Every structure is written in structure tokens, then in C-alpha cells.
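User:
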Amino acid sequence: MKIEWNLQRDQWETLSNRAHAPMQQRWTYGAVHQSLGGMVTRAAIYHQGEPIAICQILHRKIAGMFPIALATHGPAFLRPVNRKTRTNAIQALRQNGQRAFTLFTLDQHTPAWRNIPLMRPTNRAVLPLQSLATTRAALHQKWRASLTQGLKTGIRISERPCDHSDLEALLCVDRLNQTKNKYTALPPIFIQNWQKLAPRELRIFTAMHKNSPVAFALFLIHGNTATYYLAHATDQGRALNASRVILWQAIEKFIKQGVLQIDLGVIDTELAPGLARFKLGTGAFCKTGGGTVLAV
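Assistant: Predicted structure:
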């Protein structure tokens, strides 16, 4: 197994598209970390002369002294591999030359005696996009019925790049929702810097009903994948099924643009069962990760 460190951006973009890499393994994610004073290393892992995975590792120091490295949803594999290959890749990446403790938030369970578990796995809803007809056929029956009702209400959906003022308004609403619903997200400065570095990767969809906004959703587009980053609907918007209409029209647009997968985010059937049903009702599958481990 061979590792090539610090790839150029065009190499990284090509390989990350082949891996259908999530947001945390995309170039801009690392660039945002660098803009906040952190360091990034990027690696391509080769097996028998062929690239099999990529891994973006973010570096920082705790209390300004203790180096630590984090690979979230990495390594991202370009093709299915067996458990031994996954384990060997993690051990090879552990020696990243930075003398740092390396944590991996894995996309698959990868048991090994040299991986110390630190956090339990989470579940995410991941929606593959195929043809429009196939994607629509995969909608759960109740979700499709609610979408049909929403489409009959006269809701109009607009879509545009998310500028600075749009983002500040969305973050203000999201802060209130976090307090009300007791959840946390990435710090605002992270998405603010993303908007500065790659403004066209942030797309805002707004639902209007009788000239009043009733719902919005912010997506990040990164190569051939996308992330459903944050969303909100008013009481009226929920009654009109505006969030379903927004998500469906985003799906239509992304399929035309060649996006192959949308990460709908973490699902928790116990703490947020309604949100979990909403996400899984799109036909998304539940992807259970491997938890966060310390590779030693």
C-alpha cells in the first residue's frame, strides 16, 4: 500500500468525485479550515498501483500545545474494499508525519485492536440520485402524497447563490432553532468562510406563498455530491408542505446538473423522529458509520 501526500486540487477533485466524497472530504472544506488558521494534509491511497481511497486530514493544536489530527468520513474509498484493506489504510494514514494523535470518524465499522473507540456511530440519510423517474418512484407513498398536495398550493420556489446578507439571515434563524430544538451545528464562522471562498457552491432555495416566504433550504454543492446544510419552515410552510416542494425541486435541478448524491444529514429516530421520517421518506438510505476512533 502506497500513499501520495498533498495532491494538487485538480487531482483531488477528480478522485473525490470518483469516491462520491461527502462535504468533509472535499477540497473547499479543507480550505475553510486553513482560512481559520488550521493545517490540512491530503492523501491518495494506492493498492497494486491503483488509487483506492482519498483522505483529507485537518490538523490543530489543543490549548496551543498538543497536536491532533481529524479525518471526518475518511478515508473515502473509490470502490468497495475488504475490512483488511480498510484497516491497513487507516494505519498507513495514522503516520501522517505531523506527530499528531489521529482521529478517524469512519463511514464503516472497521474493527481493529489498534483503533480505540471514542464516540459511538451516527446514522445519516444519504439520497442517491438517478433518473428523475427512478428517484420519484423511490419516494415513500405518504411523502409523495404530501409532495403532490404541496405542488397544488401555488407555492413558488426560487433558487440562487447564497450571498452574505442571505447567509446572515439564515444563520440568525438557525441559531434560534438550535436553542429551541436543542441541537448543534458547525460554528457560523465555518459556513461564513465557505461563502467567502466559494460563494457559488452555496445555493439557497426559498418557497414563496402569496408573496411571503414560508420556507427555505441551504445546500452546498461540492463536485458531484451535495449537502442539505440547513433548512427552516414557518407554521404556514409546514402546513403547505413547503419543505417537501423545496427538496423535490432541488432534486430535479441537481439531477440535471449531474449531482449523484445528496447527504441529508444526521438522523435520530428517538430524539427527532419527525425529521428522520422526512429525510428517509425521500427514498434515502440510512448509512451507519463506524464511530470515531483513535488510531494508535
